[in-house]
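[Automated response] Your request has been received and processed.

Submitted sequence:
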Amino acid sequence: MEIPPLTDDTVRLALIGQVLRRRWRLLIALAVLGAAVGAGASVLFSPGYQTSSSVLLQGPRQADELLTQAEVATSSVVLDRAAAVLPWHPSGADLKKQVTASVANGNVVTITVSADTAEHAQQLADQVAQQFVKYSGQLASNSADASVQLAQEQRESLRQQVQLTTQKISDLAKSVGGDLTVESVQVRTQLEGLRTSLEQAINDLNQADLATGIGNTVVLGPSERPTGPAAPTMLQLVAGGAVLFFLAGVFGHLFAARSDRRLRGEPEIASALGSPILAGVDVTTPQGDRLPATGFYGKVRRLLGGDRPWVLPPIETSADEVNRGIRYRRVLARLATGPADVLVLVAEDDETGKLAAGQLAQLADRLSVPLRTFEFVAGRPTVPDAGPGSGVLVVLSAGSRTAWELVRLAEACADAGQEVVGAVLTHPVRPSGPEAEPVAEAPEKALAGSA
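Generated structure:
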């Protein structure tokens, strides 16, 4: 059965249904594996419980200064001090992976932490914020002496200017009379100018006072205790891994079905070999269409249901031994008109084909038909040289060989001078029940009934 193109939705749904029916154990195993991978990934990628604390930086701030303060919040000094206060006694290096800081609008530094429990997350956020405020205040108070002295000198100079201006205004106000003379108008003009200078000095003094409060930082309230773990949680990663591996298994089967180039139809096999299909025979095997469960991997394959093809139709129940024998006798009868010496070729890895070749050889011995069996390597086939009046009969299972493998086999037969007289396709069938040994027939009757 050739796999039709996956362009039709009905075909895709049918193939997916076959995967679910015949590979459900393998898909469940893949889902369990994906869940295990998700659980392992949660150890690395699940943040646990998260919460945040906000710290306000008072006064005008530059963008670069805010970024510097965010780096200070996650510095080793702050984290070491917070670790020393926390009751579960972590180390600063451990907290380095659990604490991040970012700059928000309005001169606010947001400290985000993660921990294994909600209580630990809340305690960690509060302690890091408090230690950041303390350390930032220490840095501001430990500024250079020259800068502090310069600010103090500027403030003192401004105060003196305010006092001098105020004194001049008072003196001028006393000397100005009530008459509206030219001198009085000039005096009033000078007074207005002095008042303007005084207001400017007062504004400068206020700005200087604000500058002295730049280092003040305030924690905007305690952090909130998280009500649940942050995404992605362990449950989400486990479920995501299970679904991902399950879908990967389904689509992997569909991809394998489309990339499978093994021929299943009789016309395609006959065209690749360049010879007709003489017959199709049923082969009963104790395991049906299952592969032999040899070794550890074979047992695992059988346990997961991967020991039988899923794209082929379900295996049918065999008829009795007499009806199966008729098909083999027909093959020998059709060979009777061909070469006198027939070489049966079967691949060494084709278990069903070897069983069919063995039954053909046994029947040929009973009927005194010259028939020899030769097993070849599928990848690099080698065929014995032809003898007088010899030919080749290829026995293979449907869906076991690609077109190029059959073409190479035909070329090997041609190189050996062998004529491919035909091919026999084998189909595994399930035994219908205990069967009696067939009664031996006379050779003449056997060949006569097989025509």
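Summary generated for your ticket: The longest strand covers residues 420-429. Residues 335 and 342 are 8 Å apart (CA to CA).
If you did not submit this request, please reply to this message.
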